[in-house]
């Protein structure tokens, strides 16, 4: 099976969680409002509307204009238990690719964090701080914080002042962006964590780089990546079982 799949969009991760919620609900039950769901998942309202529209197209919801969104009565044969059943190539292929990228990131980025803690300059720390400020100030702007997330990891490679490590990270630029997008989605939707908590993870990595503690910087980067792998495992996404 090919692993060159596009990354899952945010609305698809929301759709996964809502579909599981619908499966345990009762026909006629009313879902929370778009505003409440957006707050719960930490995404924009447009993302929630996309997820609801997709679930409606699957025959799982009845959306009444101005009247709310309700679970629709469906037959067992028509109700998929997991979005991956409806889109197997998308889910299985993407998750397999994500696992492979995370393995590469573990090797490369833990090493970058270690070297950056030794070689970083005050200018490097200032650049990382500026990225963190963006992540803190724009937690409600998915596109902006996602881009800042990518830049944070790339800036750590720059802070190593090792041209080969910088080139390796640059060569992974597109895949890095895709994996971080999925990592953020998993963090928010599968682990029910907030943008603020994800921001704090990055601050903790920055702190030990600023302190010059290479071993701890490597360990915190390892923990950061491992958490997402654990979520993948816990959710059983893309598993062969």
TrEMBL record:
Pfam families: FCD (PF07729), GntR (PF00392). The lineage of its organism: Bacteria, Bacillati, Bacillota, Bacilli, Bacillales. This is GntR family transcriptional regulator. CDD domains: WHTH_GntR. It comes from Paenibacillus selenitireducens. Gene3D superfamilies: GntR ligand-binding domain-like, Winged helix-like DNA-binding domain superfamily/Winged helix DNA-binding domain. Residues 8-74 form the HTH gntR-type domain. Signal peptide: none annotated. Keywords: DNA-binding, Transcription, Transcription regulation. GO terms for molecular function: DNA binding; DNA-binding transcription factor activity.
């Amino acid at each position: 099976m090919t692993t060159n799949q596009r990354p899952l969009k945010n609305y698809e991760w929301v759709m996964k969680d809502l579909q599981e919620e619908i499966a345990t609900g009762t026909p006629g039950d009313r879902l929370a409002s778009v505003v409440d769901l957006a707050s719960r998942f930490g995404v924009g309202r447009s993302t929630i509307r996309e997820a609801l529209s997709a679930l409606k197209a699957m025959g799982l919801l009845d959306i009444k204009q101005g009247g709310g969104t309700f679970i629709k009565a469906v037959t067992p044969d028509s109700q998929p238990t997991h979005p991956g059943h409806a889109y197997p190539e998308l889910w299985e292929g993407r998750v397999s690719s994500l696992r492979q990228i995370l393995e590469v990131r573990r090797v490369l980025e833990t090493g970058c964090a270690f070297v950056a803690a030794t070689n970083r300059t005050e200018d490097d720390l200032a650049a990382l701080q500026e990225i963190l400020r963006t992540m803190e100030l724009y937690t409600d702007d998915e596109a902006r914080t996602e881009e800042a997330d990518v830049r944070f990891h790339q800036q750590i490679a720059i802070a190593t002042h090792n041209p080969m490590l910088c080139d390796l990270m640059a060569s992974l630029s597109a895949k890095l962006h895709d994996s971080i997008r999925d990592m953020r989605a998993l963090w928010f939707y599968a682990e029910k964590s907030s943008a603020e908590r994800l921001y704090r993870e990055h601050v903790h990595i920055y702190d030990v780089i600023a302190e010059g503690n290479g071993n701890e910087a490597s360990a915190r980067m390892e923990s950061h990546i491992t958490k997402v792998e654990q979520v993948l495992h816990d959710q059983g996404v893309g598993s062969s079982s």
